[in-house]
Every structure is written in structure tokens, then in C-alpha cells.
Amino acid sequence: MDVSEQTAHGIAERAKFREMKEGTKEDWAIIGGEYREFAKGLPDRVLEHLKLLDGDFGGFPVCRLEHSLQTATRAHRDGRSEQYVVMALLHDIGDTLGSYNHPEVGASIIKPFVTEEIHWICQNHGAFQGYYYFHFLGMDQNAREKFRDNPHFEACREFCEKYDQAAFDPDYESEPLEFFEPMVRRVMEKPLASMYKAALESEAA
Ligand SMILES: [Fe+2]
Ligand SMILES: [Fe+2]
Q: How many angstroms does the Cα of residue 125 sit away from the middle of ligand 1?
């Protein structure tokens, strides 16, 4: 296999180790520099992935991208914060790869950039959304009750009631994805918390 790679910046440098335990400071300076550049592309990757929901109806009256845009538009027009609106936009982004646990996928993506409550809403919206349909599928409509004592219960109930369960109207005029792009970029510009924070902040050697 080639050890070098032609990139826009010339020949890419690569670490020399074959096992991580052979790694050196120089190796990690290379990887750290690449990581910082790669991390900056997160909003682009997220927005591209969100587009995979376009045209995916799954039997619903609107496709999953329109549902996402409509949820975010409703939250935005109701005066919610950018973090909240971005969560609303991305709350179902996990439908593609998390077919059995999609709320957790979206929640993990936004976790470094939002408050604990906004993260919690995304992570648990599935059970709360179920209030509107679980009983039609032989499931427990009140599955959300297991969270009744959680401080974020009301916030999650409100998200589903006002925005998520309400966002299936084919006649609603949602904002386009481009409208939300600057918000996604601003919210994802810098993590509020990440186990890799120090590496992100250190200068490339
Ligand atoms: Fe969902
Ligand atoms: Fe949803």
C-alpha cells in the first residue's frame, strides 16, 4: 500500500507506527493536525448526511427531511435558541444508521454542542413521541412515564407536543435546509465539552 497520499496540500504526512504503543510525539503531531482540520468539517458532513432523509417517506405524509425541516422551522418560529433549533433539525438524523435507536444517534452527534437538557430531549424523544402512536402498534402509550421524575420530562414532552408530532403537515411552509446551515455551523463551531478538547486547542507542532 502507498505510504503517501497526494492531497490539496501536497504529500500528506503519516505517522510511522504499526502499533499505537510505538507512537511518538511526532506521530501525534501529524495526527493531531489532521484531526483539527477534519473536525472543522463536521457541519458539512452532518448536513450531507441529513440530506439522506430526502425523499424517504416510510409511509408518513411527508419525507423525513421535510419532517426535520418542519420540526426545526416550528421551533425557530416559536423563538427557540439556536442550539434547540439545531437539535430539532437533527433529532431524526439517526434514522439512517440507528434504525432501532435513532434518538441516541442524533443525541450523540449534538452532545458536545448543546446544553444537557437539549441533549436529553433528543436522546429520549422516542419514548415521548410514542405517546401519539405506540397504542396503535400494540405498545405502551405511556412509555414516557418512566421518565416522569426526570427534571427534563416537561421539556421533552413540550418538544414532541409543539414541534415533533406536529411536523407532518404537507402544506406547511418550512424553511429550506440552507436557512439552517449557518445555525448548524455556529452551533458546531466549537464543542462545549469533549474528551478531545485539549487536542483541539493545542497548536500543531
Ligand atoms: Fe424521532
Ligand atoms: Fe421526529
A: 6
Nearest listed ligand to the Cα of residue 107: 1
Residues 6+ apart with CB under 8 A from 115: 83
Residue 33 lies in domain:
6-40
The pLDDT tens digits of the residues spanning 80-129 come to 999 999 999 999 999 999 999 999 999 999 999 999 999 999 999 999 99
pTM for this predicted structure: 0.91
Ligand that lies nearest to the alpha carbon of residue 94, given by its number in the listed order: 1
Look at residues 68, 124, 73 and name the one whose alpha carbon lies nearest to residue 96: 68
User: Looking at the 3D structure of the chain, how many domains does it have?
Assistant: 2
CATH of the domain at 121: 1.10.3210.10
Q: Which ligand is nearest to the CA of 160?
A: 2
Domain identity same for 64 and 164? yes
